[in-house]
Design brief:
Blueprint (H helix, E strand, L loop, with lengths): L2 E9 L11 H8 L3 H18 L10 E3 L11 E7 L5 H19 L6 E7 L4 H5 L4 E3 L1 H4 L3 E9 L3 H13 L5 E9 L4 H12 L4 H8 L8 H8 L3 H9 L3 H13 L9 H16 L1
Helix pairs in contact: 1-2, 2-3, 10-12, 11-12
């Protein structure tokens, strides 16, 4: 199996680092702004087509190679790590694939396949084996696998995914594609304050995100809202319409937040609130 790593932006060692796009925009993307997912996903696709392995360039932005006869092809599957509730990266993928497909059909290649990678935990390991991740090999076939993520801070997850693929007997060409790749030595010192800001909006900010015209509820949004103080959470839910409350409840239950002590009290209120509204 051959692995390549491609990044839209690279942050290398320097005395002063500037995040490659406005931090507030990245925060809105993380919490469900699909307009920004469109911008980021389209920019990533354009750059990938121009410079990515198997497309417009002979070498990607970064690469690590293992012994294999595999080569990148224009028959691709675009994967993201998945759970019950979509993440912001799912929205990124939607727009990445939409733009990439226009390029692929221009020379009669097949449109990209969207495919998910699932983490394997606990008892599921007995069914799927010792690997940490699972993918539908029947749908995958021999396609090049493009795995999307937001920020690359280390190679740990790449190593676990590659090991899982080897355990599954998958020998496809794999490309990890990121919005931003950060030098490992800089990850904690540079990104910590930025990411702390990104994941710590006010409830007022989050409510404005949810009321945006192109909002998509995602895992980060759900966990943030459910993690609020009980009174603040109740007041927030009471200000939302019925559709929003039902969707939030579905995401909460489907992702197991009702069994998580961190969210249990708020989920109980949400169940009560939705039931009360539906009985009216």
């Amino acid at each position: 199996m051959v692995q390549d790593v491609f990044s839209l932006h690279e942050v290398a060692q320097a005395d002063s680092i500037t995040f490659p796009f406005p931090v507030k925009d990245y925060q809105r993307y993380v919490f469900g702004d699909d307009k920004l997912a469109h911008r980021f996903g389209t920019d990533l696709a354009k750059s990938f087509i121009a410079h990515g392995p198997g497309f417009g360039a002979t070498q990607p932005a970064q690469s690590t190679t293992t012994t294999s006869n595999q080569r990148p092809t224009d028959d691709v599957a675009v994967a993201v790590l998945s759970g019950y509730v979509p993440t912001a990266t799912h929205s990124l993928r939607n727009h990445f694939v939409a733009y990439l497909n226009r390029h692929l059909i221009s020379f009669n290649a097949r449109p990209a396949l969207k495919i998910d990678i699932y983490g394997v935990e606990g008892g599921l390991q007995a069914r799927h084996g010792p690997q940490a991740y699972h993918i539908d090999q029947g749908r995958l076939e021999s396609r090049t696998i493009i795995i999307l993520a937001d920020i690359r801070m280390s190679q740990d997850r790449e190593a676990r995914i590659n090991q899982s693929f080897r355990n599954l007997g998958i020998d496809n060409f794999v490309v990890f594609a990121y919005l931003v790749s950060v030098d490992g030595a800089l990850s904690s010192t540079i990104l910590s304050p930025i990411l702390s800001f990104v994941v710590s909006p006010s409830i007022k900010d989050v409510e404005s995100f949810a009321q945006a015209e192109r909002f998509t509820m995602n895992e980060g949004f759900v966990q943030f809202v459910l993690g609020r103080d009980y009174v603040e959470f109740c007041q927030f839910v009471r200000r939302q319409d019925d559709f929003f409350a039902r969707l939030l409840l579905d995401c909460a239950i489907g992702s197991g937040c009702n069994n998580n002590p961190l969210y249990e009290q708020n989920v109980k209120f949400l169940i009560w609130e939705v039931t009360a509204r539906e009985s009216m």
